[in-house]
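Sanity check

After download, print the first record. It should look like this:
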Amino acid sequence: MAKGLFPRAWVKKSFYFQARISCVRVKYLFLTWLTVLVGSWVIYVQYSTYSELCRGHQCKNAICDKYKRGIIDGSACVGLCDKETLYMGRCLSTLPNNQVYTGSWGDRDGIIRCKLGEVAHYELGEEPEPRREAPVFDTPTRGTSVEKFREMVHNHLKSKLGEQANLASLVTQILSVADGNRDGRVSLPEARSMWALLQMDEVLLGLLLQDRGHTPHLLGFCGDLYMTERVHYGPLYGLPLPWPLSSWLPAGVQRTVDQWFTPSWPRKAKISMGLLELVEDIFHGTYGSFLICDLNAAILGYTDRYELRLLSNKAVISEEQFRQRMKTLKCQTDSDCAYGADCLSSCDVAERRCKEEPLKPNLAKACGVLKDYLLRGAPSGLREELERQLYACMALRGSAQMNMEHSLILNNLKALLWRQISHTKDS
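Expected structure tokens:
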């Protein structure tokens, strides 16, 4: 019997290798299919999320429709709707009803914010619910005089800030901003835009603080769409790490990593001086006292000249508002007397009512933010004294003697930092 051309063992091996190759191909095909499926799903989810969160075109269309119908007007309306020199860039929105975009207007870069629908009432620290109806811009009504509008603005500010001696000058400043086309008078459409903006506490506080240079400047507005100066460096320190890494990285290591990507120490000292000046200006300032109820590095940034900017005004409230809120709260423990993230009062257990006095001043919170930031890289001859003053500052509490102690610690810290940088170009 003739033997086959190929040995039987070789044929068996050939079949074996072919079977393995086929199995590998199937695995690769399955993995490729799975990759395409997962990738498509991720792209779909990202697109759906983007479509839901980023609706700037809807904002622009709604605002420009009302502008062209003569309902609203403002300094940015012509650039946004007529000349189209005001552009929306990258979407930064995190909520569908609060549209946030980078923007450019001529040679100016900024951040554009726009509301979609009616503002729902929410407490500080809570997220607003999606709004279903567009703002109607019906206040003030037709026939309202400028003097009547001035009175409306005055009463609104009084309800927010309490009785202040300088409210009249603030009203005049706001009416000047409302005159978008600079013709010397406030028209009804301009008044409607300004009234809509004043309902947003972050805009009102920005107007209060921008003369001192602590908040991004208001560049223009149209209805309740407004554009502010863009702060290119923020947060103050810290890197946004991916979720798995941030979960497993020890807190001490993360604090160290946060400090790696910061400016030189003299520049950090200049930025810190800006934060101390902010605290000073809102502590018994021109329009009363204010509290920052979530003071952390994430809401602080700085310019290319190392000037501090408060990136978010949403956590800032007047002390009058805080006291009014505490009056309405019942309590069993101190933890029940909270407003926002860290504005706390104490509980009168006998009365089961929260006391009106805030427990921790802004300066103590600011020093807590600056402690690691300033101590890392501090000159050796300064470090011990700086550390002592920072810890004394962090220990501040609300009391009858707080005003004097607050001013003393604040002035000592500013003087200590100024001595170190006054002779450098960073001053």
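If your output differs, re-run the checksum step. Summary of this record's structure: The longest helix spans residues 8-53.
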